Amino acid sequence: MVTVISLGGSIVAPREADGAFLRNFRSLIGGLLKQDGKRRFIFVVGGGGPARAWQKAYREVCPAGSDEEADWIGVMATRLNARLVKAVMADWCPQEIIIDPSRAGPFTGRVLVAAGWKPGFSSDYDAVLLAERFRADVVINLSNIEQVYTDDPRKNPSAKPLSSISWGDFRAMIGDEWVPGKNVPFDPVASRHAAKIGIKVICAAGRDLANLENILTGKEFTGTVIA
Questions:
Q1: Top-level CATH class of 2-226?
Q2: Burial status of residue 83 (CB atoms within 10 A of its CB: 0-12, 13-18, 19 or more)
Q3: From the CB of residue 57, how many other CB atoms can be counted at a distance below 10 Å?
Q4: Choice between 183 and 125, residue whose per-residue pLDDT is larger
Q5: pLDDT at res. 153
Q6: How far apart are CA 221 and CA 68, in angstroms?
Q7: Helix crossing, 48-61 with 67-88: angle to 10°?
Q8: pLDDT score recorded for residue 7
Q9: What is the pLDDT of residues 139-179, one digit of tens each?
Q10: What is the C-alpha to C-alpha distance for residues 126 and 118, in angstroms, rounded to an integer?
Q11: Model confidence over 13-36: pLDDT tens digits?
Q12: Phi, psi at residue 13, to the nearest 5°?
């Protein structure tokens, strides 16, 4: 059984690397691996605070700079964060970090860590491709939001949380265009491919590890199911 988790960079490194979260996350994953000898995890790590800070500096110095260059800066931040996660998970992760999901080889350990691939989308898309490659039917998307809302709750106080939403309605809400640093619950490019191949996505708060454990053990949880 392979579980794919798109681990938002805002959880791993909101401004700087969060050692306390990583310690608790490692403990949770280690416990689940011990309980079920057949269980395996793929963690696809985002760029978080380092990506935003370095992209901001680039935009300040080069206001007319290219989206592609900004995306590459974000990709490199994901690789730094992924290296940290791989090191934390070293007991179960013998393989190198995956940076090109289209060329991912056999999954030989209990944990596999992946990072951003190339410009044009976020690491969410890499997570969907790896779920397709290793036949997982769900991607758990962990970020700094607890659920998908009908609108941006920071701008619209009447926005309501959703426990579920169809891919059609979700894609109508977020659009199809990707720009570096776009702040949506799940990348539009990843959403298009997930809808096409029929993969379900669960969006949930990454720092609520008790809730994540509920998701991973089939119990009632707080989040939004997109299918």
A1: alpha beta
A2: middle
A3: 11
A4: 125
A5: 84
A6: 37
A7: 160
A8: 97
A9: 999 999 999 999 888 889 899 999 999 999 999 999 988 88
A10: 10
A11: 999 999 999 999 999 999 999 999
A12: -145, 80
Q: If you average pLDDT over residues 74-84, what whole number do you get?
A: 97
Start-to-end C-alpha separation, the chain: 20
Which two three-digit tokens encode residue 28?
């949770």
Alpha carbons 219 and 209: distance in angstroms, whole number? 13
Domain parsing of the chain, residue ranges = 2-226
Three-state DSSP string of the chain: CEEEEEECHHHHCCCCCCHHHHHHHHHHHHHHHHHCCCCEEEEEECCHHHHHHHHHHHHHHCCCCCHHHHHHHHHHHHHHHHHHHHHHCCCCCCCCCECCHHHCCCCCCCEEEECCCCCCCCHHHHHHHHHHHCCCCEEEEEECCCCEECCCCCCCCCCCEECEECHHHHHHHHCCCCCCCCCCCCCHHHHHHHHHHCCEEEEEECCCHHHHHHHHCCCCCCCEEEC
Pairwise CA distance, residues 227 & 133, whole Å: 19
Closest CA to 165 of 136, 195, 142: 195
Asked whether the beta carbons of 126 and 71 are under 8 A apart, the reply is: no
Give the pLDDT of residue 177: 85
**180 pLDDT above the threshold of 80:** no
pLDDT band at residue 181, thresholds of 50, 70 and 90? low
Look-up: residue for tokens 């260059």? 69
For residue 179, the model assigns a pLDDT of 80
Give, in order, the Cα–Cα distances in Å from 207 to each of 6, 8, 145, 178, 224: 13, 10, 9, 26, 16
